[in-house]
Amino acid sequence: MSETEVVFDRRMLEALICPRSHETLKYDQERQELISETANLAYPIRNGIPVMLIDEARVLD
Question: How far, in Å, are 9, 21, 31, 35, 52 from residue 4 at the CA level?
Fold first, then answer.
Protein backbone atom coordinates (compact mmCIF):
# COMPACT_ATOMS: atom_id res chain seq x y z
CA MET A 1 0.00 0.00 0.00
CA SER A 2 1.41 3.38 -0.96
CA GLU A 3 1.58 6.31 1.44
CA THR A 4 -1.07 8.22 -0.52
CA GLU A 5 -3.55 5.34 -0.71
CA VAL A 6 -6.69 5.90 1.33
CA VAL A 7 -7.68 3.04 3.63
CA PHE A 8 -11.25 1.80 3.96
CA ASP A 9 -12.73 2.52 7.38
CA ARG A 10 -14.12 -0.80 8.65
CA ARG A 11 -16.67 1.05 10.79
CA MET A 12 -18.54 1.76 7.56
CA LEU A 13 -19.52 -1.93 7.45
CA GLU A 14 -21.97 -1.26 10.26
CA ALA A 15 -23.94 1.12 8.04
CA LEU A 16 -23.59 -0.48 4.61
CA ILE A 17 -25.72 -3.23 3.13
CA CYS A 18 -25.85 -4.85 -0.27
CA PRO A 19 -28.17 -2.86 -2.56
CA ARG A 20 -29.42 -6.07 -4.18
CA SER A 21 -29.91 -8.45 -1.23
CA HIS A 22 -30.15 -5.89 1.60
CA GLU A 23 -27.84 -8.15 3.63
CA THR A 24 -24.62 -7.33 5.47
CA LEU A 25 -21.26 -7.30 3.70
CA LYS A 26 -17.82 -8.74 4.40
CA TYR A 27 -14.62 -6.79 3.82
CA ASP A 28 -11.93 -8.37 1.64
CA GLN A 29 -8.85 -6.30 2.47
CA GLU A 30 -6.59 -7.99 -0.07
CA ARG A 31 -8.90 -7.33 -3.03
CA GLN A 32 -10.33 -4.08 -1.62
CA GLU A 33 -13.91 -5.24 -2.06
CA LEU A 34 -17.07 -5.58 -0.03
CA ILE A 35 -18.53 -9.04 -0.50
CA SER A 36 -22.20 -9.93 -0.55
CA GLU A 37 -22.36 -13.69 -0.26
CA THR A 38 -26.15 -13.67 -0.60
CA ALA A 39 -26.12 -11.73 -3.89
CA ASN A 40 -22.85 -13.34 -5.04
CA LEU A 41 -21.37 -9.89 -5.75
CA ALA A 42 -18.20 -8.02 -4.82
CA TYR A 43 -18.38 -4.23 -4.66
CA PRO A 44 -15.09 -2.41 -5.31
CA ILE A 45 -13.51 0.03 -2.89
CA ARG A 46 -11.78 2.88 -4.70
CA ASN A 47 -9.64 5.38 -2.80
CA GLY A 48 -11.19 4.16 0.44
CA ILE A 49 -14.76 4.69 -0.82
CA PRO A 50 -17.07 1.72 -1.45
CA VAL A 51 -18.76 1.83 -4.85
CA MET A 52 -22.16 0.39 -4.00
CA LEU A 53 -23.54 0.24 -7.53
CA ILE A 54 -24.78 -3.12 -8.78
CA ASP A 55 -23.48 -2.29 -12.27
CA GLU A 56 -19.97 -1.79 -10.84
CA ALA A 57 -19.98 -5.02 -8.80
CA ARG A 58 -18.04 -8.10 -9.82
CA VAL A 59 -19.94 -11.39 -9.96
CA LEU A 60 -18.29 -13.95 -7.69
CA ASP A 61 -17.28 -17.31 -9.12
Answer: 15, 33, 18, 25, 23
- Classify residue 24 by its DSSP letter: -
Model-wide pTM > 0.85: yes
- pLDDT of 4-50, one tens digit each? 678 899 999 999 999 999 999 999 999 999 999 999 999 999 999 99
55: which strand partners? none
Give the right CATH number for 10-59 from 3.40.50.1460, 2.20.25.10, 2.60.40.10, 3.30.190.20. Answer: 2.20.25.10
Q: What is the spatial distance between Cα 32 and Cα 24, in angstroms, rounded to a whole number?
A: 16
